[in-house]
Amino acid sequence: MPFWIRRPSEAATAPDIDEAYRRGRRDERAARKRHPVLMSGLFVLAAAGAALITLAATKGSFSDGGEVADASLNAAAAQAQPVVEEAVLSAGDAARDAGAAIRDKGAELAERN
Asked: How many Å apart are CA 49 and CA 62, to the nearest integer?
């Protein structure tokens, strides 16, 4: 019997077809899984690129737009530098304090035994 002619008992039922469709979608979604952090980073880079192109279009050239972007980035970096340095120092202090607390707790436990 040709393959395109099926007996009624061999025909796929609607639930079988629906389940196969769902299983296929699930398999494809799993095969194309993307990392959310990487996708967020890519989105941020695309937005920054679009902003730079828009800036270049409004200033009339890429060099003028680049000068404006550089000036803005330098100002932001100058404002952020003290904040970042303070955060690094406080993180170092917190790590040192945590290490000292662990060392003291270890010495205390060693004395008990």
From this structure: 12
Q: What is the pLDDT of residues 37-66, one digit of tens each?
A: 888 999 999 999 898 888 888 888 878 877
Closest residue by Cα to residue 55 from 44, 39, 66, 43 = 66
CA dist., res. 50 & res. 56, Å (int): 10
69 vs 23: CA distance, rounded Å: 49
pTM for the whole thing? 0.40
Q: Where are the domains positioned within the chain?
A: 12-60, 61-113
d(CA 28, CA 33): 9
